[in-house]
Batch of 4 targets.
Target 1
Amino acid sequence: MRFDIISCQPELLTSPFSHSILKRAQQKGLVEVHIHDLRKYAINKHGQIDDYAFGGGAGMVMMIEPIDKLITELRADRAYDAIIYMTPDGQTLNQKIANQFSLLQNVIILCGHYKGVDERVRQHFVTHEISIGDYVLSGGELGAAVLADAIIRIIPGVLNDESSALTDSFQDGLLAPPVYTRPAEYKGMKVPDILLSGNNPKIEEWRFEQAVERTRQRRPDLLDE
Ligand code: ADE
């Protein structure tokens, strides 16, 4: 899967893709991440990519021309399955949306800044609008990194232990059950006996019950769905 991420603050995106699972996914050739500096497509030599809003009001608006130029250049080389705009008024990201995106081949993610992009970009280029939650970030970059991470980790082959993405919270509509590791007892705090029993069917049953109970307590809305 190929990601082309459009940003006017590309430095914000280097670290998330340079470590751990996201780095390994690229090294394994399963994912390509290309980060594009929108300022290279500025309308003048001052690097201008935004302007005042028509009609007045505080805050700058990202102009259509630099975005059009960059997207047109990208599209000349390949077709894109989705052009995703990161914005607080988009559809709130969840596991199901991440799963759906993970089936795509080529995706553009556009990071907003300031007061957002000229509405014509949204009308004529953008195919999906995604928010990572009901709060406003300084820009779309952190959201883009969150979205890309959620997608990349479920691409087959990215995680070494494939079953581990399938047992994540939300994959089966439940939160994940509690987990423990050594030592079996620490300062009097004990691991549940069942996990040390070696009885795998019973352990799976216990995990399922714990997942349901945790979901009932913390996210009853998930059980309603
Ligand atoms: N840009 C600013 N706030 C955002 C949010 N909550 N989600 C995605 N992109 C954003």
Target 2
Amino acid sequence: MLELKNVSHIYSNGVRALNDVTLSIPKGMFGLLGPNGAGKSTLMRTVATLQTPTSGVIQFDDIDILDDPEALRRRLGYLPQDFGVYPRVSAYDMLDHMAVLKGIGSKGQRKDTVETLLNQVNLWDVRKKAIAGFSGGMRQRFGIAQALIGNPDLIIVDEPTAGLDPEERNRFLNLLAEIGENVVVILSTHIVDDVSDLCPRMAVLVAGQIKLEGSPAELIERARGTIWAKTIERGQLEQYGSDYEVISTRLFAGNTIIHVLSNTDPGNGFEAVDGGLEDVYFSTLAATRRRDTAQAA
Ligand code: ADP
Ligand code: MG
């Protein structure tokens, strides 16, 4: 169990990237969903002990990670959002090198580890090829392999599906799903489907604050009766935007289907829809925008 209590982070330029974040993250896959700039990477780097929060407490099982970052690092696997340099070194040699850095000294043990991981992420056939020549999906699978060195029980993957094509994304998510239920896996993403496909627990982070937390099904249930849909012509969009709280628009066969948020039946040809996680997420973003606009006024 990973626990964050009242974690805030203010960068030296004054940006408050995390604002009093309190979260309990149990074993299994946990989705951290939020738009660009929400603070996801800041949160993940902080948990990975790469930066120290301005205030707050973070505990992983019985480790106080701010007190004893070394203890956390021994149990951590981390795939940063920007993995950075892609060397002209082969996948095999790179992984072997990283295993040395992670403290696997014995040659035999390293061989086992590297070979198992390359098979697990389906890169065995290209193990002798340079990572520099890998596709986005292959790089991310390599990224997972390096994160899994040493059997970590806290795994952090920061926006791993961004930029992957649908097939690569699927393959990558399946790989994550196999990692197991006995470790904590935190997946950050701005893609709602990543979370709904994969995560039994999730939180929505917007502007440094946790806005929602629970299972996708619970959050969807909570939104029941508040999402309404109507098919309109494209030219009517602006009018509807000012009359209703439009949370999403989708083109369908040349028309526009809008979803609006309303606690009561808006009438005017709107029909109740069972909102999905996307509606829940967009409603949360809309509510945050509304509050910010009200504050600015
Ligand atoms: P996300 O990963 O959700 O896109 P980030 O954690 O990268 O969000 O960023 C959160 C906020 O903090 C943004 O406003 C971003 O511009 C700001 N920020 C991130 N890193 C730094 C930094 N090193 N110095 C100053 N501001 C930063
Ligand atoms: Mg990020």
Target 3
Amino acid sequence: MRIGTTLTNYIIQNQRHIAGATGEFTGLLNDLAVACKKIADLVNKGALVNVLGSADSENVQGEQQKKLDVISNQIMIEALRHNGHIAALASEEMDSVYHLPPEAPRGKYLLLCDPLDGSSNIDVNVSVGTIFSILKAPEDRTDPNEADFLLPGAEQVAAGYCLYGPSTMLVMTTGNGVCMFTLDRDFGEFLLTRDQVRIPAQTGEFAINASYRRFWEPAVRRYIDECMAGADGPRGKNFNMRWVASMVAEVHRILTRGGVFLYPCDQRLAAAGKEGKLRLMYEANPMAMIVEQAGGAASNGRQRILDIEPREIHQRVPVILGSSEEVERVVAYHTAG
Ligand code: P6P
């Protein structure tokens, strides 16, 4: 009777590819898998366990928090703080770095997360997800501070997400390709269902919130207008459009069949003093690592996402990611001015 490859088995088998990995890394991935299974359970039950609707609070971004945003954040903390695999935690839902209780053992990793991305979809039963990024903690500090987290995305040890959709899927990379695991609810294990995922270099599908067209920079307007012009336009082919308003779902679709995702900066965001909508440290960086590891590309329009030197933990960036030839075209339009 074949069981399949569990997430834990996969990590142990591939540990040699993970720089400086010991059992601690396997333990951290296991903690994350436990947190994601718990979040998946609550997302799946929804109204039955009274977790829908707003939490009547705002996050550091000044955005309305959903009950499940707050609960998912608490689950991440609970799953990680006692096991000695991390030294500190940063989350979209917390203003500052979460320091472990004094008695908790310290691990050698820093964890950053968006505990429930796309949560505006939760009340309308559309897919949402958890995004995580793993960095090495500084050797000499018991309680890392915000500055210790401010490493470029290229220094991530691992990155991943859990998509709460028709299937619950955990997708991750440790720098040696991208693998996908599907949750078997019958015995509570994530089982390997795809390995060495590759994104096609070309695509006929773009994802953008087209309602903001009037605010876009000329480069983005040119790119999207050419896609919309279809076979009679300069691209000489027809395009399809998708917008789920859940980055995890968009990235998963792109990993599965190609595509390009754009959340550019625009006049609306610039007027509010924001460089973009999406956050660099726990949305753009982990997704950029995953996309690049699958042969795609990820840029802010002018610079590789993974090369951006962070200034602060909740920093925002424009994001263009997916099929490499399309990302390269959008970047070329930005640099052409
Ligand atoms: P809009 C979800 O809030 C999110 O951060 C991403 O997951 C998603 O791609 C984007 O914002 C949706 O933004 O402006 O279309 O609601």
Target 4
Amino acid sequence: MPQLVDQYQRKFEYLRLSITDVCNFKCTYCLPDGYHRQHKKAFLTLPEIRHLVAGFATMGTQKVRITGGEPSLRRDLCDILETVKTTPGIAKVAMTTNGYRMARDVADWRRSGLDAINVSMDSLDAKMFHQITGENLLHKVMSGIDAAFDAGFEQVKVNTVLMKGLNSHELGAFLAWIKPRNIQLRFIELMQTGDNPALFHAHHVSGATIMAQLLEQGWIEKVRQPTDGPARVFCHPDYQGEIGLIMPYESHFCDSCNRLRVSALGRLHLCLFGEQGSELRPLLQHSHQQPELQQALLTALATKGPSHHLAQGDVGGTQHLASVGG
Ligand code: SAM
Ligand code: SF4
């Protein structure tokens, strides 16, 4: 079976699958006015997800990340996790969540097959957390992180969108927080989308400013493995935790791209900042459609460009990341 490799010899062993675009938070950079439904279509069903993941797995996909919107708002989340985890060829199931349901449900997610978890937390300051996410729930996310360790996750990854004037001064506090904890804190540079240009121009700051401070304080960049994605990871002998930097505006960021995305409505997105995506849903209705699905993936992949055009201010068709599954 042909593998998911593009004309630039990038191998796509990682699928990011959005299972809903609904969200209960109002992050300023993503859904500042909250979620408003813009379509009447139902999200991918469990059988559609099963057929989709099975098709990807036959072509070399080994890792699936469940995302959204907020994936934990789906009532059948545990069934989805179990379905993905038991698909032959899938070695790792990860999920990105805003942490809202984590304290309550993370043990069930783990029992259903979740191997790795990323939780978004943009500030250690409760007021700033509220300001950025629209919800006064830092305490809830914090107890969710504790619950994840209690449930047996050895490491928790925390996503923090770096924003000048909002949380960029919190590096010291974040470092103190991860010193005794096996947390990989990942600073993600704020990305421009169709909906957020004013916020982007006011608050974008390069992750290089964090990198300079880390290097000055004795942090060391870990050697990247060929299967690693675009995050650059730093460690320090005195710290249990690690720092990751995701800097999509760096040149060559896309050289290490290893992921494809499918939206909650079943559209294949070759890039977070690509165009409308190609429709896969009609090919997910029966298991015997697998050859057609495989051919559709190969045809689409042949058109994947070498990189996005974010640095030129071109955000493709992406209004906000909740629609594509960030
Ligand atoms: N709702 C879940 C959450 O927030 O973790 C999963 C979906 S969310 C779209 C995935 C990740 O994308 C989150 O870590 C979020 O902070 C990040 N994100 C969303 N919009 C972004 C933007 N404009 N720039 C950088 N990161 C963004
Ligand atoms: Fe919701 Fe995640 Fe977007 Fe925040 S970043 S509004 S939690 S989808």
